[in-house]
Design goal:
By secondary structure, the protein is an alpha+beta fold. The chain has three helices and eight strands, in the order βββββββαβαα. The longest helix is centred in the last third of the chain and has 16 residues.
């Protein structure tokens, strides 16, 4: 197979080195200032408009102390519709991932749009009262671990029309819960 297509450009499917496909989108969003000591970042991965090679379908996740909630917004194997706020018993569209002590490789099965929220472990514990050590190296269905309020927020994120609306929903949910439990900030001293 030729590495060049008819337009004399390199054909990304002919070079199966795992490089990022040009028709994918990965975006990183920072949290608002009020949540900066709670939320590390929001990450979007969109492969809906790309024909990924087998190598390009792998995601390599590093060791991380962070807790993540990962939404499969569209595509992939888990395109189950959620109706009237109820979760299908087998839904893996929203997953809670604990801190990782080992690098992880995950393979995407078909074009997909994913969205993730990464939270500092102490903040997640303060918000959920869950022991983060019990989540080490685990990925669980959100609805089996967190309460109805978290589940309702997660469903609203799935239904949101775009990334900014997803972030607004999450921040509207987290901010009133985070402000009362966050660590006190030291008072500023005059110079």
């Amino acid at each position: 197979a030729s590495l060049l297509n008819a337009n004399m450009a390199i054909d990304p499917l002919a070079v199966d080195d795992g490089a990022i496909h040009p028709d994918t989108r990965t975006s990183l969003f920072q949290p608002s200032a009020l949540l900066a000591d709670c939320v590390c970042a929001y990450v979007v991965r969109d492969t809906l408009n790309a024909q990924l090679s087998p190598q390009q379908s792998f995601s390599h996740l590093p060791v991380s102390p962070l807790v993540s909630i990962v939404w499969l917004i569209q595509g992939g194997r888990s395109s189950i519709q959620i109706g009237d706020g109820e979760w299908p018993a087998s839904s893996r569209r929203v997953v809670l991932r604990g801190p990782r002590t080992q690098p992880t490789i995950w393979q995407s099965h078909g074009p997909a749009l994913g969205f993730s929220l990464t939270i500092f472990p102490d903040a997640f514990h303060a918000l959920s009262d869950l022991n983060v050590t019990g989540l080490l190296d685990q990925a669980r269905n959100l609805q089996t671990v967190l309460g109805k309020d978290w589940q309702q927020m997660a469903i609203a994120v799935l239904r949101a029309g775009d990334d900014l609306e997803r972030i607004q929903i999450i921040e509207a949910f987290l901010t009133p819960r985070w402000i009362p439990v966050r660590a006190p900030r030291p008072a500023a001293t005059p110079s």
